[in-house]
Amino acid sequence: MRTVPEELRTEYENAGWWRRETLGDVLVRGLAAAPGAEFRVHSEVRPWSGSCAEVERTARRLAAGLRARGVGPGDAIAFQLPNWMEAAATFWASALLGAVVVPIVHFYGRKELTHILGTVRPAVFVTAESFGRMRFEPDVSAEVPIVGVVGADFDRLLATEPMAGTLSADPAGPALIAFTSGTTSAPKGVVHSHQTLSCEARQLAEQNELDRSAQLTATPVGHFIGMIGAFLLPVLHGKPIHLLDVWEPGRALALMRSDGLSVGGGPPYFVTSLLDHPDFGPDCLDHMRYVGLGGSAVPVAVTRRLTDLGLTAFRAYGSTEHPSITASRYTAPEHERLATDGRPMPGVEIRLAEDGEILSRGPDLCLGYTDDALTDRVFDADGWYRTGDIGVLRDDGCLTVTDRKADVIIRGGENVSALEVEELLAELPEVAEAVVVAVPDARLGEAVGAVLRLRPGHVLPSLAVVRERFAEAGIARQKWPERLFEVEDYPRTASGKVRKHLVRERIATSI
pTM for the whole thing? Predict the structure, then answer.
């Protein structure tokens, strides 16, 4: 892990961004304030209904059972579960024990799971017997000392009596290892401390302070932001917890109507799939008043579409390594909320390198990676993190992410921003979502390929029509799409982000 410069540590502590408390302390305080808050899992295979106090008791029984087996502060507890009650119990038990939680998205397969367990070598692994295509394969976790399988023997890990209080841990020490979504290669293990995660939770809680309605969480809790959003933010607000274990827009719309639940945003895909569903109606807008978008590229066409529906849309920018770099408040001017990624969050600093790469540092920045060599490459001695993103910083302090360094298409020696082309394609009436990647070209080396997901009832426009619209917009010819592809959907990460390297691979083998 990296060494945080002493002057930054002192600054963060003096400002109250870093506190002498663990995730367990934060959790216990929040649960004590609203023990009767509702906790429901909306699932066809494992529904559950009760209170947060009941889930806390299960978590404390799990903590007591694991403590009796020798698990304590600093030990790693991994879980690969859908959005079920047992996922909350496992996360909360880890926090109570002062352990290091390792969430794993439930649709990761044997290869990713083997890599993660081999990297972390957890003391405990909690998983599901089966869910969708997921199946428990005992040999993958054969080296893990303690394994619990929900649907089989999970209850054997629970002690009869719950553990009282929390175990002491170093607030500056590791609390979570979050594996990145693997958009380019094998997942990377990102290490966060109790202090960085608690700071992030408070940042998000303050960002969403206006909307206190009951939220429906459908993003996988195996992704750490999904986990924090489902199992920590509602606790800080004293709000009920509602989970959906399969993202089905029709089911989400039905729950909005029947239970008065809200969908507060996330990656654009989750929002646009609601708007494009045939069951969507004007009455649903009451449950989507404030829509915060982030986690992947946010086209202006999407924020304007939401605004035209009377909703308040705003954008945020961050990553697994640095979760909340910039954001716009819901009260910000419209041009800032819709067309930029906002201003630096409290305590966060940003600057641009000579090539436009965004560098950031702040109190919610991770401690580094499980791979020391990668940590040395990505962080410098002054605490700056190389994001790998390209951006433009306006005079008023607003940042706009314009591309990933890896997403620049080099067409005949000219650099083409994939994000810029995606923004233009998203404005076409036929297009629900656009992904632009480099496709091999014998003459130019790389050409611009557009992979489109269409709105219901529309057909793929011809290349001539697309180029005509780009010409009307005054876009340089080298940026015009040269290949068009249609897909029903893209391969995605747990957070809904398109896995572009897989799109590239599929395109490369189809031409």
Answer: 0.84
